[in-house]
Design goal:
Largest sheet of chain B: 6 strands, mixed
Structural class of chain A: mainly beta
Largest interface: A-B, 24 and 22 residues
Number of strands of chain A: 11
Shape of chain B: globular
Structural class of chain B: mainly beta
Number of helices of chain A: 0
Radius of gyration of chain A: 13 Å
Distance between the termini of chain A: 36 Å
Order of helices and strands of chain B: EEEEEEEEEEE
Number of strands of chain B: 11
Order of helices and strands of chain A: EEEEEEEEEEE
Strand content of chain B: over 45%
Oligomer: heterodimer
Number of helices of chain B: 0
Largest sheet of chain A: 7 strands, mixed
Helix content of chain A: under 10%
């Protein structure tokens, strides 16, 4: 069964902490994505990557960075967590042109 | 302006009813996705389609490219179908695999 695995289901961090969210896919997909989901706002794209070491800003990249050193792994980094980054974070991957789009189970991050 | 519009926003049905969720979009697309999200859960891809119709169990998805419209149908609905259903499109000119999402339709099926 193909999978996108996010390292944590729930996470609580303090304001100012550096936070790492990890995502691993086993489908040899070229594209990987990080979204956040908030009530009333739906899914919003933070960053995506279409190849190793390549990254593109999405709609709301401020306060975030990403790393893709290997094809199967895409990390989202909150440089200095703030309370307005409390949200559900979803990772996804796909082949070229969106083939096989697959989401992870999500990480619910609370920043206190 | 959201380029992907879903209706209705909320839907309550009795078990066994036939359900239709609609999605309209304004951009040229390469594919349309229907996604399902249970409360507190991750997102599951139900369908990806670029033309015609697809069926999986009690779920049917159709798309009319000329009218820029898609529908998701659930036959013989069941309480376990209660979830948020999200329409998303991958569009020409967008970055590879990048999606535009609708705001979702929250479905509640009562026993």
């Amino acid at each position: 069964d193909v999978k996108v695995t996010q390292s944590s289901r729930y996470l609580v961090k303090r304001t100012g902490e550096k936070v790492f969210l990890e995502c691993v896919q086993d489908m040899d997909h070229e594209n990987m994505f990080w979204y956040r989901q908030d009530p009333g706002l739906g899914l919003r794209l933070i960053y995506f990557s279409y190849d190793v070491k390549m990254k593109e800003k999405g709609d709301i990249p401020e306060g975030y960075s990403v790393s893709r050193e290997k094809k199967e792994r895409f990390s989202l980094i909150l440089e200095s967590a703030s309370t307005n980054q409390t949200s559900m974070y979803l990772c996804a991957s796909s082949g070229r042109l969106g083939i096989g789009y697959t989401f992870g189970s999500g990480t619910r991050l609370t920043v206190v | 302006k959201n380029e992907v519009e879903q209706s209705p926003q909320n839907l309550t049905a009795q078990e066994g009813e036939f359900i239709t969720i609609n999605c309209s979009y304004s951009v040229g697309i390469s594919a349309l996705h229907w996604l399902q999200q249970h409360p507190g859960g991750g997102i599951v891809s139900l369908f990806m389609l670029s033309s015609g119709k697809k069926k999986h169990g009690r779920l049917i998805a159709t798309i009319n490219i000329q009218e820029k419209h898609s529908s998701l149908h659930i036959t013989a609905s069941h309480p376990r179908d209660s979830a948020v259903y999200i329409c998303a499109v991958s569009y020409y000119g967008g970055s590879q695999g990048n999606l535009i999402f609708g705001k979702g339709t929250k479905l509640s099926v009562k026993p």
